[in-house]
């Protein structure tokens, strides 16, 4: 783990500057990012803590690592701030960790772990998860028709995660005209269908739904930082009433997004509001007005959910140690509140439903995942070759 950190400057960077921030690269991380957890423990709950606690990028590196030792097998949790690294780049770092593990002497691993890894009190530089004030997201989401209806929500500001592993579809869905749905298309379409069904079953509305999907910007390899933009995939109630029509609508948009991926996309609410205000507002006022603008605009322009698929992760495959599954997680603030991360590893399609605690409780997240699983299976069984979409 430490060798991988040494090879990647962004893993030990920190921010500096009062108004305009820049990265400072140091020989060693400003705080130890590695935490070893002995004696068991729930690895997913530890991961939730690492994901939920805010980063202070001035005082701590944009990386957190927890190695959880359990009787049934260890769990490695690697968390990085999105300003510093994107999902595929982080997956490459994880692959390096496992590759180095296979050629490292066991005695050296034991000595390094005993001396350097923190084993108690939590990882360095990770503050407690804040508690948020109550917010009326439930009533707003039910009326808007654009967001997921909350259930069993709490006042906590953190995130929970529900893992789900599905078999990789054995066949590609064929659409009218000979086009085929990718696994990514199926995931995005299933998110639209699951949100529609969830809202209707809980007395909410399901109008125009928007699902955010990260996409490569085609930036040259080796460029530092996050090299992904975002596109929004839209569906209407009439689309979701017919599986073939929904599939065609999704594929139309994802294909267009791939063709246009060289054009930088503005990432998120802050990016949109920031681009609109930077040229018009004096520097000393810009920060405060930008924060106010983001809070005001968020309910109006946030999508319904986010889906991010890292695809096959064959580079992480290892027999020493034996890796059983690989999950990819992310976060989404309210009123969006849901991030579905996907990876393909082995014969499984591994999904992690990351939910804001003001959106779901644990039981509600599990129930939503079941609806998503059913929607995914229905879409994977579609045969659109025989007819045109209605």
Automatic annotation (TrEMBL):
Condensation domain ranges (all copies): 3-103
Domain of life, source organism: Bacteria
GO molecular function terms attached to this record: catalytic activity
GO biological process, any: lipid biosynthetic process
Protein name, UniProt field: Condensation domain-containing protein
Provenance organism: Frankia alni (strain DSM 45986 / CECT 9034 / ACN14a)
Lineage of the species this protein comes from: Bacteria, Bacillati, Actinomycetota, Actinomycetes, Frankiales
């Amino acid at each position: 783990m430490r060798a991988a950190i040494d090879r990647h400057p962004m893993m030990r960077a920190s921010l500096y500057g009062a108004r305009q921030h820049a990265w400072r690269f140091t020989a060693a991380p400003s705080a130890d990012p590695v935490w070893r957890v002995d004696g068991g423990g729930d690895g997913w709950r530890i991961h939730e803590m690492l994901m939920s606690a805010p980063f202070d990028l001035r005082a701590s590196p944009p990386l957190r690592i927890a190695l959880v030792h359990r009787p049934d097998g260890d769990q490695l949790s690697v968390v990085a701030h999105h300003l510093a690294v994107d999902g595929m780049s982080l997956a490459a770092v994880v692959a390096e960790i496992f590759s180095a593990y296979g050629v490292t002497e066991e005695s050296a691993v034991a000595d390094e772990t005993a001396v350097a890894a923190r084993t108690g009190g939590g990882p360095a530089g990770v503050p407690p998860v804040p508690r948020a004030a109550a917010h009326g997201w439930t009533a707003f989401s039910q009326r808007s028709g654009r967001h997921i209806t909350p259930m069993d929500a709490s006042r906590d500001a953190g995130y929970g995660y529900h893992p789900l592993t599905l078999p990789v579809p054995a066949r590609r869905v064929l659409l009218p005209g000979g086009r085929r749905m990718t696994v990514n298309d199926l995931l995005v379409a299933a998110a639209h269908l699951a949100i529609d069904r969830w809202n209707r079953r809980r007395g909410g509305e399901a109008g125009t739904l928007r699902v955010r999907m990260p996409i490569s910007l085609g930036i040259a390899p080796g460029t530092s930082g996050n090299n992904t933009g975002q596109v929004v995939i839209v569906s209407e109630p009439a689309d979701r009433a017919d599986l073939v029509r929904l599939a065609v609508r999704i594929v139309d948009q994802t294909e267009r997004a791939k063709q246009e991926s060289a054009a930088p996309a503005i990432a998120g609410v802050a990016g949109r509001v920031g681009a609109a205000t930077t040229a018009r507002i004096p520097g000393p006022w810009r920060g405060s007005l930008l924060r106010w603008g983001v809070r005001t605009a968020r309910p109006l322009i946030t999508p319904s959910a986010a889906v991010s698929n890292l695809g096959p992760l064959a580079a992480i495959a290892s027999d020493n140690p034996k890796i059983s599954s690989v999950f990819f997680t992310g976060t989404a603030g309210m009123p969006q509140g849901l991030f579905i991360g996907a990876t393909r590893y082995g014969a499984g399609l591994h999904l992690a439903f990351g939910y804001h605690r003001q959106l779901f409780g644990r039981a509600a997240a599990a129930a939503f995942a079941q609806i998503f699983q059913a929607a995914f299976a229905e879409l994977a069984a579609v045969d659109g070759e025989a007819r045109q979409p209605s």
